[in-house]
Design a protein that fits this description.
The protein is α+β, with helices and mostly antiparallel strands. 50% of the residues lie in helices and 12% in strands. The radius of gyration is 30 Å and the shape is globular. The protein starts with 6 loop residues before the first helix and ends in a 10-residue tail after the last helix.
Length: 455
C-alpha cells in the first residue's frame, strides 16, 4: 500500500448511501444541540449576560457594557441560526465551516474551564440544563468531530430548502430569534428555567401566625449514605431510594418557620441589617410589590419618578411595596437621599435577586403568597399607574408568555414549512414528468408526422 494514501481513499465515498445516511444523522444531531443551546440562552439573555460577566471577571477584562450586550445577542443568535441551517441543509458549505470555527473557539475555552474551574458551570445550556465543566468539554469534543465530518460531507447531502429560497429562511430565523431575545431582555424570559417561575409559592402559608399548639416534626431520610431533613409537606419519594431514618420534634415556632421558609422560598432571604426578616415580610395574607435592584449602583436616578408613582398606585390599591437591593449601606443611603422613598428598603444577595427576576430594577407581584407576575421596570408603562390614571388592577400588568411564545413559534415554523414545500415543487414536477403514464400521455397527444413517400 502506498504511503501517500489520500483521505479520499480512507473516508467513505460522499456519493455512497452509507455516507449520505451518516451525514444526515450527524447533521441533524448537531443541529439539535445548536438549536437547543442557542434557544435556551437567547430566551434568557440576562442569564447569558451574567455568565459572560463571570468569564470577563475571572479573565480580568473590562469591556464596554453595551458591547458585551451586543455580543451576547449575537452569540445566542448565531448559535441558533447555525442549528437551523444545519437542520434544513441551508448554505451547506459555509455553515459547516462556520460550525467548525465556532467549535474551534469553544473547545479550548471549555478545556480551560474544565482544567482550572474558574466558574462553577459554563452556562452552555443556560439554566435549562446544567452540565459539569468536564461534561461540557467532552460534549464539545463530540461536536467538533461532527463539525469536521460535515465540512467534508455536508455539501454532498441534499438540502430541504432550495438555494434560491434559503435567504428568506435566513431573514425569518434572524428575526424570530432577535424578537425572542428582545422580549427576554426588555420584559422577562418567555420560558422561566429559574427557581422562581410564575405560580411559585414564596410565602410561609401563615405558619408563623398559627395558634395551633400541636407539635411539629421534621423527618430525616437517608439516600446514598447522605441524611437530609424534610418537612411534612415535602417528604421524598421512597421509590427514588430515600429511606426513613428518624423524626425530630420542632420545639419552637421559630424553627417551624425557618423550615417552611427553606422549603417554600428556596433559600431566598430578605435582610434588615443582620436580621433575616423574610418571614415577617412575605406572608400568605398580604399582597406585595417587590422592587428589586441587584446592582444598585447602576440604577439610574431617572427611574425615581416612575418608582415613586408605582408606590402611589400600590398604596391606592392597598398593596404593600418594598425594595430589595444588593448594595452597601453607603449605596442605600445615597439612594434614599436622592429618591426620598416612602417604601422600606431591605437587602438580599445579588445572585438570589437575579434568580428571582431579571432586570435592574425589576418588579414582582405576590398575591396570597404566590408569585403572580414579574417584569423589568422599563417594561411597565408609567401611564398605567400615575395618580390620575391608576384604574388598572394588579393582574392587568401580567403577560401571557406561553401565548406569545406559541404564536411566534407557530408563525416561524409555518413560514419555514412553506419554504420547504416550495422547495419540493421542482422535485415533484420531475417525478410526475418522469412517470411512465406521463410518457404514454405525451405519446398519445403528440401529432403524428405523415409518411411522405420518396419520389
Amino acid at each position: 500500500m502506498p504511503s501517500s494514501l489520500s483521505s479520499r481513499s480512507v473516508l467513505p465515498d460522499p456519493s455512497s448511501r452509507t455516507a449520505q445516511w451518516l451525514t444526515w444523522i450527524v447533521r441533524e444531531l448537531t443541529a439539535c444541540v445548536f438549536i437547543f443551546s442557542g434557544f435556551v440562552k437567547a430566551i434568557d439573555p440576562w442569564g447569558t449576560l451574567y455568565k459572560v460577566h463571570d468569564y470577563l471577571s475571572v479573565m480580568h477584562l473590562d469591556l464596554w457594557p453595551n458591547l458585551v450586550t451586543v455580543g451576547v445577542f449575537f452569540l445566542c443568535g448565531i448559535e441558533f441560526m447555525l442549528g437551523v441551517f444545519l437542520a434544513s441543509g441551508s448554505f451547506r458549505r459555509g455553515v459547516s465551516v462556520l460550525t467548525l470555527l465556532f467549535m474551534a473557539f469553544m473547545l479550548p475555552l471549555t478545556l480551560w474551564i474544565a482544567l482550572f474551574d474558574p466558574v462553577p458551570d459554563c452556562g452552555c445550556f443556560g439554566d435549562a440544563l446544567i452540565l459539569s465543566n468536564w461534561e461540557t468539554f467532552w460534549k464539545n469534543v463530540v461536536l467538533t468531530v461532527c463539525a469536521l465530518w460535515l465540512v467534508i460531507y455536508n455539501r454532498h447531502c441534499r438540502c430541504l430548502i432550495m438555494p434560491a429560497l434559503q435567504w428568506f429562511g435566513l431573514m425569518a430565523t434572524a428575526l424570530f430569534i432577535f424578537i425572542i431575545e428582545l422580549i427576554g431582555y426588555i420584559y422577562q424570559p418567555l420560558i422561566d428555567f429559574r427557581p422562581y417561575p410564575i405560580g411559585s409559592v414564596i410565602a410561609l402559608d401563615g405558619k408563623e401566625d398559627s395558634d395551633d399548639d400541636e407539635p411539629e416534626f421534621t423527618f430525616i431520610y437517608s439516600k446514598d449514605g447522605v441524611e437530609k431533613e424534610f418537612s411534612l409537606d415535602s417528604l421524598p419519594d421512597e421509590e427514588e431510594g430515600w429511606v426513613f431514618v428518624d423524626r425530630k420534634e420542632l420545639n419552637t415556632r421559630q424553627e417551624v418557620s425557618k423550615l417552611a421558609l427553606k422549603d417554600d422560598t428556596k433559600e431566598f432571604h430578605i435582610w434588615e441589617g443582620d436580621e433575616d426578616v423574610t418571614e415577617d415580610i412575605i406572608t400568605s395574607d398580604r399582597d406585595l410589590l417587590i422592587l428589586t435592584m441587584p446592582e444598585m449602583e447602576h440604577v439610574s436616578i431617572s427611574t425615581v419618578w416612575k418608582i415613586n408613582s408605582l408606590y402611589d398606585w400600590a398604596s391606592a390599591h392597598n398593596i404593600g411595596m418594598i425594595a430589595v437591593a444588593a448594595g452597601s449601606g453607603k449605596d442605600i443611603a445615597t439612594w434614599k437621599d436622592l429618591s426620598m422613598p416612602e417604601y422600606p428598603i431591605y437587602t438580599a444577595d445579588d445572585t438570589s435577586i437575579k434568580e428571582l427576576v431579571r432586570g435592574n430594577p425589576a418588579v414582582i407581584y405576590v398575591h396570597d403568597g404566590t408569585l403572580k407576575w414579574k417584569s423589568s421596570l422599563r417594561a411597565l408603562n408609567s401611564d398605567d399607574f400615575v395618580a390620575d390614571q391608576n384604574l388598572k388592577e394588579p393582574m392587568d400588568f401580567a403577560r401571557d408568555n406561553r401565548w406569545i411564545l406559541n404564536t411566534l413559534t407557530w408563525i416561524y415554523l409555518a413560514f419555514m414549512g412553506l419554504l420547504i414545500l416550495a422547495s419540493l415543487i421542482p422535485m415533484l414536477s420531475r417525478l410526475v414528468l418522469s412517470h411512465p403514464k406521463s410518457h404514454k400521455y405525451e405519446a398519445k397527444t403528440k401529432p403524428k408526422t405523415p409518411n411522405i413517400p420518396n419520389s
